[in-house]
Protein: BglG family transcriptional antiterminator
Amino acid sequence: MLMLQQRSLNILELIMGNHNITMKDLEVKTLLTRRQINYDLTRINDWLLQNKFKEIKKQGKEGFLFQNDTNEVLKALLKENVKYILNEDERLMAIYLYLYVSREEISLFHFTEMLDVSRGTINDDLKKLANQLEDYSLKLSYSRLRGYHIEGEESTIKYVALLLITKLIDDNRSHYIFHLIMEEQGLSLFNKLTSVCKTCFYKANIHFSDNDLLKVTYIATFILMRGRGIKEDFLQENNFVFEGHNEYAVAGEILDKLGMDHNEHIEFLTSLLLAFSIGDSYLNTPDYPMLKKIIEKIMIKLEVSYGIQLNSKEEVLEQVYAHFRPAYYRIIFQYPIVNPLKDKIKKQYNALFKLLKDILEPLNLPNNITVSDDEIAYLTIHFATLIDIDVTTVNSTKMIKAAIVCPNGTGISLLLYKELKNIFPKVYFLKPIPISKLDSLRDDIDIIFSTKLIKATQPILVVSPIMNNLEKATLIKNFYRKIGKTVVTENYYVEDLLKVIIKHAVVKRPSELKEELNNLILNYSYVDGIEGRQPMLSEIVTKELIQLNVEAVDWKDAIKKSATSLVNHHKITEGYVKAMIDSAEESGPYIVITKHVALPHARPEDGANELAISITTLKKPVEFGNSENDPVKYVFCLSALDNITHLNALSELVGLLGDHAFYETLEKAKEPSEIINFIEKYEEEMSLS
Structure:
């Protein structure tokens, strides 16, 4: 029986999810060379023919010809007799988790039997795993009495196991590896636990994303299989009161149905439910007032300190709470979080990410625990969906209806929802749903967008929640091919280009040329939404907008005088100056964003004519009423035109305000050009880092 490696499976899933995907698309999505892809395609076709399917054929620029029923191929892949070859990274994770749950003496034979590789390969893997474990102060040891085992703090051993479980689930690589490790006893526990949990969660109205439900059941299974020191070693927040939470009662019911000891397991299981269930702001849980207060602080900082208007406060609170509540408990209980989209989010939503990081770092969390970049990235996509310009809702009765299936959680699914609505404004998208609810909607939808390949009767497109321009262009072409139409996106640039071509050449088939030009331009010119053109700080701060050693009698006078240059250069109106003062009086001292620094601003409609920031240093500091950060010595007046275009410059300013050398420059500068030069040098250094 031919065995497929994970890399080959990934390529097969990409082709099945997007039949018109091209070789270039595969290179972009997989980061593989054309030679590597061709090698995997040969293996895939061998497997398809072996299982009585038709092979995949290349069609040049038209992509690949896939002539099989996707659902039938998926069924064949899920059969127990299909055996996959794990890559090196997966083998190391499998070895660690096998050592974690096993209670018998482990030898090389166990590993070679389980992974179906040679002793030499296992020996190399064990050396590499030992090196990796040194980063966690853990040791991979061997003795005649115990065989291979892991030595170190039990809490750290558990943490690494949970990290690997989380990583495998978020990478959609969990099913085969976990079942390889758990064997009969573990699978029996997992199946029973899954059944009991689903019943109890439904009864208690506790909800999870598809992936987070998997995390709860797999983590619980692995922890219970190991069966060591759960109560003593696992929980880091020893003063936490569990009894008042609904999750505590649900955990007790689950343990009763499993016939397990409450005293040993209930706090662990409660922490697990708190850390991965979706927060519901309507349930009025005992922790709601405390968590609401933290979220409101974040919202106030975004609005008052950074000029990002959040129009529907209730909607913002509800959506952010859904993610923030489990994130809070993951932080205090130190559950590992792996955000597979972190790097993409930090790149595409860089400015918003930096601002949220600046807001979240000073939060006083238990035991001085900090919020990880993975968690901040998830919060970033929540706010990204809330501050962007809404796509106009259209009449759903005359449109193509689409379902969005995303197992990763509410934040990522809402980001995908927003992204797809922007790309396909003439398609009616239902709100994202978990895989389990898809069957109830199949008769009402025309096409399915999913972040993973699933069995479906309707056409399905596999998409990434965050796409680059090439991926978006490819998705548009594949979408219209799926529904039996050509690309209908019009581009005025194409119209002008076509006129020039017709003027100087004979065009036999203008309509076909227009379509091809549309597709070509689309590949290179698709504009991203929220993170479109956002100027750098040096582009919106000029020498004329910088004032040095200005005298001010009080905070109102400081704002007025700092805004003078903006008024004189028609960046804002006089009404905007009054609005800034009114806003500061209404919102209190939040415009003092850090020690000795104020960032006054108003709403765009109050009189902002052009994006700009003025810089004013005061001769004598003045009190703004912020006991923590007063007195103010530096005033940065912001003229923002919307929620978006000033974010990059603002995040850059936040970075500068963390640099002591910037303050020295502000203090010692004799000419505005010295400050401009410092900003430009800072930007140059940041571009190289």
Observations:
- Residues 148 and 358 are 45 Å apart (CA to CA).
- The two ends are 49 Å apart (CA to CA).
- The chain is about 55% helix and 10% strand.
- Confidence is low (pLDDT under 50) at residues 389-397, 486-490, 523-531.
